[in-house]
Amino acid sequence: MVVAREVVDAVRGARRLAVVTGAGMSAESGVPTFRDAQPGLWEQYSPEDLATVEAWERDPAFVWAWYLWRFERVRHVEPNAGHRAVAALAGVAGVDAVTVVTQNVDDLHERGGSDDVVHLHGALSRFRCASCGAPFDAPVALPHSETERIDPPRCEACGGLVRPGVVWFGELLPQDAWDRGLAAVEAADVVLVVGTSGIVHPAAGLPVVARGAGAVVIEVNPRDTDVSDVAHHRVRETAAVALPALVEALLRG
Ligand code: OAD
């Protein structure tokens, strides 16, 4: 694909870049998004039904097994060309700082080579006690399907139930991650917004903050979203196509 000249020029003129990502970033690695039409769990359950404290309290075995299924799936997929291109942006065309601010709970940005990654919604692999918060590092039994039920293990410190290290609807984002994410978009010259529907707050507010702080906002998403109107430029392509094309255009000079 050919990336529009004004997009390439905007990134070329930037020293600090922030890349705000959502589930679409990992879609081409084989990790399903939450809200695109697809077979599977989200046909029957909306994220708001399952990823909540209420769902956990009602049926911890179901919620635990579903996250473990996702955890297992993520372990067996690879970063895609989009993740690698995000990492490659650091150092091309005068860009000297790239901060990834992701809503994703997978580790594909890190495995794709990015070294400054802020996880707004936590990380699948960071299990912790739901009662005392102690981290839990022991091996866990993995499900064979996404609808299997598995009782969560017990905390070795207090006996409480162990839960996934993710943020659920109704919970606050980790303060440190939010502060770092906000600081990154406020300091950025250009903010790329990749693969998010822009409907879950407060993350969905970051493009607005970025624009208000003077950044050029560029959306990479095959479809229109709730944050499209905030963007100065819209690249209607997938992450694994658009981002490598952008890096290539920057390297060509
Ligand atoms: P969504 O599933 O809401 O949106 C995915 C977005 O990715 C859509 O706008 C798609 O058009 C776009 N998309 C799909 N394939 C793509 C591709 N190959 N390249 C680029 N874009 C693509 O996912 P999020 O916006 O990440 O929160 O959802 C936000 C939050 O809702 C998640 O972090 C999660 C969920 O509930 C929690 O669990 C707290």
Provide an overview of this structure:
The structure is a single chain. Helices cover 35% and strands 13% of the residues. The chain is built from 11 helices and 8 strands. The chain has helices at 5-12, 24-27, 41-44, 47-50, 53-58, 60-75, 81-89, 108-111, 175-187, 206-212, 239-252, and strands at residues 16-21, 97-102, 117-119, 128-129, 162-163, 190-194, 216-220, 233-235. It has a 6-stranded parallel β-sheet with strand order 3-2-1-6-7-8, with helices on both faces. Helix 10 links the parallel strand 6 (190-194) and strand 7 (216-220). The protein is elongated and about 55 Å long. The model has no long low-confidence stretch (mean pLDDT 92). 2'-O-acetyl adenosine-5-diphosphoribose (OAD) binds at residues 22-24, 27-28, 33-36, 47, 51, 103, 121, 166-167, 194-197, 200, 221-223, 225, 238-239. Residues 22-24, 27-28, 33-36, 47, 51, 103, 121, 166-167, 194-197, 200, 221-223, 225, 238-239 line the site of 2'-O-acetyl adenosine-5-diphosphoribose.
Return the domain count: 2
Cα-to-Cα separation, first versus last residue:
16 Å
**Strands of the largest sheet, in order across it?**
3-2-1-6-7-8
List each distinct ligand once: 2'-O-acetyl adenosine-5-diphosphoribose
* β-strand amount: 5-15%
Main structural class: alpha/beta
CATH architecture of the largest domain: 3-Layer(aba) Sandwich
Average pLDDT score: 92
What's the CATH superfamily of the largest domain, by name? TPP-binding domain
Instruction: Note the overall shape.
Output: elongated
Q: If helices are DSSP runs of H or I spanning 4 or more residues, what is the number of helices?
A: 11
Report the strand count: 8
Can you tell me the CATH topology of the largest domain?
Answer: Rossmann fold
Q: Report low-confidence residues grouped into runs of 5 or more.
A: none
